[in-house]
Amino acid sequence: MAVFKVVEIGDPVLREKAKKITKITDALQQLLDDMAETMYAANGVGLAAPQVGLSKRVIVVDAGEGLYQLINPEIIEARGNQMDREGCLSIPGIWGEVIRAAEIKVRAQNRDGKTIVIEAAELFARVLQHEIDHLDGILFVDKALKIARIEG
Ligand code: ZN
Fold first, then answer.
1. Is 26 inside a domain boundary?
2. Left, alpha or beta for 15 (phi > 0: left; psi -120 to 50: alpha)?
3. What's the pLDDT score for residue 146?
4. For residue 69, is it within any domain?
5. Number of structural domains in the chain
6. Domain range enclosing 94
7. How far is the CA of 41 from the centre of ligand 1 (A)?
8. Is 81 in contact with 121 (CB distance < 8 Å)?
9. 104, 81 in Cβ contact below 8 A?
């Protein structure tokens, strides 16, 4: 296990459309574990592979529902909307108010390559949408209605 250095806004990898995963390998499973370790070490609730400098469609999320390690995640249904504060490990010291869907369904492969469908609401849905945006080169500051610096 290893903790990655998280890349920050300005790094071009954060703006790329990440590449689809076509094969489950030991190296990919190691990446998922290292990403989880990196997320927990940074007290984050989600992390996308581009944030560790890798243009791959892989995310890890733990918004209180336990750890999800997702490969090629896509939103297949979205309902309603919610607005709340959001931040990002790649944009330290900044938060913004972002409108997201209230409830979503995400289809992905798990770490063994099995296709799964996740239903998510509230914070879990918000984090999934934020991380999936990273795979398309989208950052929360692109969508935020109001942006502010964290005081302190
Ligand atoms: Zn982020």
1. yes
2. alpha
3. 87
4. yes
5. 1
6. 12-149
7. 15
8. no
9. no
Residue 40 within a domain: yes
The rounded Å distance from CA 86 to ligand 1 centre is 9
* Domain assignment of residue 38, yes or no: yes
CA–centroid distance, residue 26 to ligand 1 (Å): 26
Q: Where are the beta strands (DSSP E) in 5-138?
A: 46-48, 58-61, 68-79, 82-86, 94-100, 103-109, 115-121
Q: What is the pTM of this model?
A: 0.96
* Distance in Å, CA 130 to ligand 1 centroid: 6
Which of the residues 37, 103, 122, 131 is marked catalytic? 131
What amino acid is encoded at 99 in this protein? I
* pLDDT tens, N- to C-terminus, the chain (152 residues): 789 999 999 999 999 999 999 999 999 999 999 999 999 999 999 999 999 999 999 999 999 999 999 999 999 999 999 999 999 999 999 999 999 999 999 999 999 999 999 999 999 999 999 999 999 999 999 999 988 888 76
Give the domain CATH number at 135: 3.90.45.10
What confidence score (pLDDT) does residue 30 get? 98
Please indicate whether residue 8 is annotated as part of the active site: no
